[in-house]
Design a protein that fits this description.
Strand content: 15-25%
Radius of gyration: 46 Å
CATH class of the largest domain: Alpha Beta
Distance between the termini: 92 Å
Structural class: alpha+beta
CATH architecture of the largest domain: 2-Layer Sandwich
CATH superfamily of the largest domain: Histidine kinase-like ATPase, C-terminal domain
Strand order of the largest sheet: 2-1-5-4-3
Number of helices: 21
Length: about 750
């Protein structure tokens, strides 16, 4: 086929490669499907059901026989519509060839013919169907020949078999109840003699069962040109079920009225404009009014004025919704006849008229005054409980700060002592102090985090972090404890681990909990900590050669205040908090263990990788002896510790005990950096920072680093007060010195150094 013939063909032509991707498509197909010539498979041009037919039927047939004809599929049209098509297809070594024809053009006339024939058949069936559904038959009798025709439903109403019973005028009277025959004959004779129309209700006796049924007949007398009666035509309807339903309805209404009259709930019926048609006697008990005092009035007269607008909107919304099976519950206040307020709950239901539209509303109203009182009491109790929880959180936050402040000195001085003392025994003692203080810090973190997790207030502080360095720090912390027990402690990490965005504090907390437990419970062998990067997830495993955990014990893991081994000390919070922290990070945590075979705790979390090399220092390199630093802290030991750390880096240091003196010092001289404790007497660090920024020209732009216990929320408060950064208590020397170096590096050139060396 030439290129022109292909393009102008009066049907859709598509050529696909062996993978089903469209290589060429002519204009007919492009216009029909909206295909724009991009990279696309033929299957993507089809609707989802047709995609299934393509893969499940057409392609297997092509692969087997090489050809397929008139496969009914549906294309996605350019306007989002679906286009039925017939597809002929051929498969050769080069790919697939499709010819697509709009199904309607080919089948339109055939379909119209079949539809017309079907309708013709249906119309003849509809009459029989309608008669059967309505229990309505028709009949015709010839007054001259006495011959009579009955429709199938007429036979069914009278219980007669067309094969054995032939109806004739006059002879069918035996099918009626004897007491009704005289009236029937009189009615028909009067019609023949008079205007020709007749109607009667009577009882018939079914020929097959003898059952008495109630019927209604309406008929007309046929006359010839001379006016002589020549026939009768009529319809007969079985009313038995209808009359029974009416009787049941009347009985139900009587029972309903009895129920309404005796119910403790108010039952009412009112028009769509609110006019009350009926109200049960219960209204007198609930609101003090008699039914006679209320019927004819408007619902507006019952509902409290302050609640009427919302109540009216709720009822109107129910009427407009169209979903009248969904009964709303509307609560409002009403005023009792004696003046006091009553809380009510209404449940309106639609009452439909003959046209299927809502004619009235039926309402069931109950007294919920006591329930409202209970709800108010519960709300007050909830407010008190929340206040107590807030007070507890504030207390824990205060205690956290008060505990972390002396811990800063304990951890810092023990580390300094360990580094400067040469004798083995004092070094060991200082190491013991440092290790114990780390354990105390972990316990404080667990208690505070447990409170925050309970309240849903714990926030992650995400920042660039070297997971390898973090793991090595944890291992170094636990190494002394492991060596004291004769255990090996190994770390397995990836050499090419990149910098990642992590909450370093929470990660350290999880690792310390899991690895610390492993060292704690292992008596022989050792512990291996493995850290691996798996694309977008960080995977950590802590494997020990300890006693293992039974299946029953594993069920108690990760639960609050739960310990598997009650012979050891601990709060039982560590694993539970670790699980909650991992899940807060979007990760998973679990354990694999059996008695006598050790345990493997593992967790993985999603991570984002930072730009840069993990081996590079997170903070900038800064030469020593390049800064004059002011340290403000009300705790003398902490002032000494921070000053010692700063001087060890070559900085010059001034110290003050509160924010007021810090503000005064900043008025008198310029500093390169200020380390400001947040909680201090006289003037706290936040107020002092605001004062420095507002009124100290010498230090208005000097970097201020806050020192405080707290997480991301506390950091935001510090930054909001004008600080540049925050270092958490208890202070980690490496973090403090890196933070100071970073901000000094950023400020060099902006702030002349008053004093160095």
């Amino acid at each position: 086929m030439t290129e022109a013939a292909f393009e102008l063909a009066p049907c859709g032509l598509v050529v696909c490669d062996g993978n089903g991707s469209i290589v060429a498509a002519n204009r007919f197909f492009r216009e029909m499907s909206g295909y724009d010539g991009g990279t696309k498979t033929f299957g993507r041009c089809l609707t989802r059901p047709s995609q299934f037919i393509l893969s499940a039927k057409l392609l297997p047939q092509l692969n087997q026989s090489g050809e397929a004809s008139e496969i009914a599929l549906t294309l996605n049209g350019p306007d989002g519509d679906s286009i039925p098509v017939l597809v002929n297809a051929r498969h050769d070594g080069d790919g697939f060839h499709y010819a697509i024809f709009p199904a309607r053009e080919r089948r339109e006339y055939e379909s119209e013919y079949l539809n017309a024939k079907k309708k013709l058949t249906q119309y003849s069936d509809y009459l029989r169907m309608a008669e059967r559904l309505a229990h309505l038959g028709h009949w015709h009798g010839n007054l001259v020949t006495r011959e009579t025709y009955w429709s199938p439903e007429t036979y069914a109403i009278f219980g007669c078999d067309p094969e054995t019973f032939t109806p004739r005028i006059g002879e069918t009277m035996v099918l009626y109840h004897p007491d009704d025959r005289k009236d029937i004959l009189a009615t028909v004779d009067a019609a023949v003699a008079g205007n020709g129309e007749f109607s009667f209700r009577a009882r018939c006796i079914r020929r097959d069962t003898g059952e008495i049924r109630h019927i209604e007949t309406n008929g007309v007398c046929e006359r010839d040109e001379s006016g002589q009666a020549i026939g009768l035509f009529g319809v007969v309807q079985d009313l038995t079920d209808l009359l029974r339903a009416q009787d049941a309805t009347e009985a139900s209404e009587a029972r309903y009225r009895l129920l309404a009259d005796s119910s403790n709930d108010i039952i009412s019926v009112f028009d769509l404009d609110g006019t009350i048609d009926y109200v049960s006697p219960a209204i007198e008990k609930l609101l003090g009014f008699t039914p006679a005092e209320v019927i004819g009035k408007n619902v507006r007269d019952i509902v409290h004025p302050d609640d009427f607008r919302l109540t009216q909107a709720a009822f109107a919304g129910y009427v407009r919704s169209g979903d009248w099976s969904a009964v709303p519950r509307v609560q409002y206040r009403a005023r009792h006849k004696n003046g006091h307020i009553v809380w009510l709950e209404a449940s309106p239901r639609a009452m439909l008229g003959p046209d299927g539209k809502i004619a009235k509303l039926q309402d069931v109203v109950r007294d919920i005054t006591e329930r409202k009182a209970v709800e108010a009491a519960l709300e007050d109790a909830m407010v008190e409980a929340n206040a107590a929880a807030d007070a507890k959180s504030q207390f824990l936050a205060t205690m956290s700060h008060e505990l972390r402040t002396p811990l800063t000195s304990i951890i810092g001085f023990s580390a300094l002592l360990r580094d400067v003392v040469q004798d083995e025994e004092p070094r060991r003692f200082s190491q013991r102090i440092w290790t114990a203080s780390q354990g105390l810090l972990a316990l404080i973190n667990d208690i505070l985090d447990h409170s925050k997790l309970e309240a849903g207030q714990l926030e992650l502080d995400i920042a660039p972090c070297s997971a390898n360095e973090l793991m090595l720090e944890v291992a170094e912390t636990l190494e002394v404890q492991a060596q004291a027990k004769g255990l090996f402690l190994t770390v397995d990490t990836d050499d090419d681990m990149p910098l990642m965005l992590l909450d370093e504090v929470r990660m350290r907390q999880i690792l310390m909990n899991l690895a610390g437990n492993a060292v704690k419970f292992t008596q022989d062998g050792g512990v291996t900590i493995a850290l691996h990067w798996r694309g977008d997830r960080l995977q950590v495993t802590i494997t020990d050669t300890g006693p293992g955990i039974s299946p029953e014990g594993q069920k108690r893991l990760f639960k609050r205040f739960s310990q598997v081994d009650h012979t050891t000390n601990g709060t039982g919070l560590g694993l539970m908090i670790s699980k909650q922290l991992v899940e807060l990070m979007g990760g998973r945590i679990s354990v694999e263990s059996s008695p006598g075979n050790g345990s493997m705790f593992w967790f993985d979390i999603p991570v984002q990788v930072c730009e840069g090399d993990a081996d590079e220092e997170v903070g900038p390199e800064v030469a020593a002896e390049t800064g004059f630093i002011l340290v403000a802290d009300d705790h003398a030991a902490n002032r000494e510790l921070i000053a010692t750390l700063m001087r060890s880096q070559g900085y010059s240091v001034d110290t003050v005990p509160d924010g007021g003196e810090a503000l005064q010092a900043c008025l008198e001289r310029r500093y390169d950096l200020i380390l400001m404790d947040v909680n201090m007497p006289v003037m706290d660090g936040l107020v002092a920072t605001q004062g420095i920024r507002a009124s100290c020209e010498l230090n208005a732009r000097t970097p201020i680093v806050g020192v405080s216990a707290g997480g991301e929320s506390r950091r935001r408060i510090c930054l909001g007060a004008g600080m540049n950064a925050m270092v958490e208590k208890p202070i980690r020397p490496a973090v403090l010195t890196a933070t100071v170096a970073e901000w000094l590096a950023q400020s060099q050139g902006d702030f002349p150094h008053v004093r160095t060396g």
